[in-house]
Specification:
Elements lengths: L5 E7 L9 H9 L3 H12 L16 H19 L6 E9 L10 E10 L10 E7 L17 H13 L1
Parallel strand pairs: 1-3
Antiparallel strand pairs: 1-4, 2-3
Helix pairs in contact: 2-4
Length: 163
């Protein structure tokens, strides 16, 4: 079972899409702002740790603060884009202790953002963009030590936000 707290962005419904034309990929990547990406990664790093067993109640540190921030970012971006059809949900999965990375029962919570397609020809498609927002120190059981996770997987999480 995957124990990573994830961030998922889904579009449309399930079918095999045609490859995206280069001009579409170019338009999409052209609107990615390097300063915004850096700020988003720094914000994630600022939670001190996003270890699965870290604090879930604090508004400033731990995995709970990170997931609430991610949810609010998705909601804010949807609002700025004028999209009232976007849904953002926290989906919890209860995990029992496994002794390797989890020493007590815990809820692993995914942040799921669903953006319906707007083109009729894409209405039957699903695209998934996935990253995990949790992080850990070298000692997999240490939920207190700093584990900023800029690359593992703050960068993947920010890709989800940028999409």
């Amino acid at each position: 079972m995957n124990l990573m707290a994830g961030v998922f962005v889904a579009f449309g419904t399930l079918t095999q899409p045609d490859p995206l034309p280069a001009e579409i990929v170019g338009r999409v990547t052209a609107v990615i702002d390097a300063d915004r990406v850096r700020d988003e990664i720094e914000h994630l790093v600022g939670f001190h740790t996003r270890h699965t067993l870290s604090d879930t109640e604090s508004d400033d540190s731990g995995i709970g603060a990170a997931r609430r921030w991610l949810k609010s970012e998705f909601e804010s971006m949807a609002g700025e884009a004028g999209r009232d059809d976007v849904t953002v949900a926290l989906e919890a999965h209860h995990i029992e202790a496994d002794g390797r990375r989890i020493d007590r029962a815990v809820d692993v919570v995914n942040v799921v953002c669903t953006i319906p397609g707007s083109m009729p020809e894409a209405s039957g498609r699903l695209y998934y963009v996935i990253g995990h927002y949790d992080s850990r120190a070298s000692d997999a059981m240490d939920a207190e030590r700093a584990a900023p996770g800029a690359n593992d997987d703050g960068s993947g999480t920010v890709v989800c936000l940028e999409v």
